[in-house]
User: Fold these one by one.
Assistant:
Number 1:
Amino acid sequence: MILRDFHVHSTYCDGRCELEEIINTAIEKGVKTLGIVSHCYTPFHVYGRLTPDSVYEFSKELNALKARYSDKIELLVGVEEDYFGETDLSKFDYVIGDVHYIKGPSKYHSIDYVYPEFKALVEDVGGGVNAYKIYYEQLVKLVKEKNPHIVGHFDIISKNNNDNEFFDEESEDYIATWKKAIDEILAFNKDIYFEVNTGGIARKYKDRPYPRKEMVEYIKSKNGKLLLTSDAHHKDNLCFEFEKWKKEFDL
Ligand SMILES: [Zn+2]
Ligand SMILES: [Zn+2]
């Protein structure tokens, strides 16, 4: 399998390895194309060392390394742009669009951080059904407003919903809601990629990627494009379980 990974974080945001450590590990692993991203800055929550300027400092340094390593690996400079991000997207080779936050009546809540924060989100928006409806609506809006190349971790809203604690992932309404989101995203841009993100497995939150199998099957049935990504925050997790999920999901 030709290894390509388009979703890797460095110490410019909340990753644990420096850019060159990641690049050298990727070269050792035989990765052909490596896209490193930074989270975007949002005023109400800051990932790692992020400041309003650090995404651009990141892009400047990675662009310099791109030239230096060009005979060994293809490097791409990306940004993980949030619904509430205000990044100048023209400064990046590609954009992963994803929803990490929901604005509740009382404050902005993180969707994919720790359990107590997700619980507070659900209470603030009036239940789990409202939470997923807001999430999928906001994801579709993000795609329409920012036109990213990749839809990031579709169904991350399920991260803290183990044992269907906050909403029933098998319910007709949940299934209809995510199907509608996929339909609307593909109606807007049939060439967009949905990532199959193995980061939750590496970090032991889930035993399957985002999105889950039924969603992957649905995207395929609509001729949507899929792309394995690791969302690695450490160099050891580059291309995490790509062989396994390529086979499992027949990608
Ligand atoms: Zn993310
Ligand atoms: Zn990420």
Number 2:
Amino acid sequence: MPLNPSVVIVGAGPSGSSTAFHLLEHGVQDVLVLDKASFPRDKLCGGGLTRKAQQELDRMGVYDDKVATEAYHVPKPYIVMPSGNALYARPREDKLTQMLVLNRRILDEILMRRARQRGAEIREGVEVTELVREDGRCAGVRTRDGEIFSADVVVVAAGARSARLRPDGARSVELVALEGRYSGEPIEHGTACLVFEEAFTPQYGWVFPESEKIVNVGVAVMGRGKAKELRARLKVMVSKYLPRHLGEACVSCRTTGFPIHASYKIDHLVDGNVLYVGEAGSLADPLTLEGISQALVSGRHAAGSIAAYLRTGEASCLGAYQETVRRELRHFAYMRWVAAILKRRSGARLLEAVLRRTPKWLVDEKRFASP
Ligand SMILES: Cc1cc2nc3c(=O)[nH]c(=O)nc-3n(C[C@H](O)[C@H](O)[C@H](O)COP(=O)(O)OP(=O)(O)OC[C@H]3O[C@@H](n4cnc5c(N)ncnc54)[C@H](O)[C@@H]3O)c2cc1C
């Protein structure tokens, strides 16, 4: 274990493991990752891996023989529009699948082990309680046991529950989600659905199969204190959309909730020598809740900026990290527009008309009637 690691990373989820892995790829040797959990650990999440996430996993060398082998393949995910029409994505013919679904207990352990195998020191069961400030900069982190780890750079990769480690002024949309796992006999194969019911928009509900017989169903709403609304929406998802995927489904796991920090505004990712990656930087998408690809991408860019900083001593290298993430996530500007337009009935109709003419989509005439 390096006594004075160059970089301390708080959290070994996708963003922390990605940062650690890419730092080692850049030749930074002294990388210490601290996570309060012991792996494998659960993380409430749909586990949907977009093509972007799959590309990042491929870069980390865990796609072919790990993730793609363990995950459920979804070549034809579909969206239910507020009109009730279902639009299916057209299957692609390259190595990546339109969507994979992998339980986070499995995915995060694969990523954590990859970073460790590459040379990162990862300590499990160690909770960071605060960033230690000295002379206007961050000197390291303090753990719940009072131990202090000093570092040249600290990366906060602690996810949605990292409020006390976040910089002043960082704002994001807080969503809460509720999900449950259901088991039964499969009806549809190779599909998953994202439901933009008129009553749900701009949030949505999902039915993501983790295997032929186990399906994860969830819903999200904006703001806190919405337990009743979440339960009502989950009921709609289970009675109306789950039967298309599973026959005679029964709950295989209790339903639980979790917050999500999301924003289309990419800021407050750098605070002196502290960098924020993944959901600690509010990089989840407020509309789709996708956060894994952004966690992996931001970890990769943070690593590049830190490596340049450690090589040159130029503080501007750390500052450049935020701009690089902005460039890579420039589709957020388009998604913000989609989220705004979906809120209006006329906007949703317009969006559906546009999607129907896009070669990426196959239109299914089966309609889901309003309840
Ligand atoms: C219900 C739900 C459904 C979702 N569905 C999807 C989906 O289908 N696809 C998708 O792409 N995204 C989805 N997301 C978003 C996705 O889960 C997150 O954006 C993603 O996990 C962010 O990764 P991360 O590494 O930043 O944080 P996390 O995955 O939350 O990892 C943070 C890590 O930090 C550790 N930690 C926290 N605090 C401390 C501390 N003080 N000290 C030490 N360690 C600490 C935790 O133990 C954890 O291991 C969903 C989220 C929710 C809530």
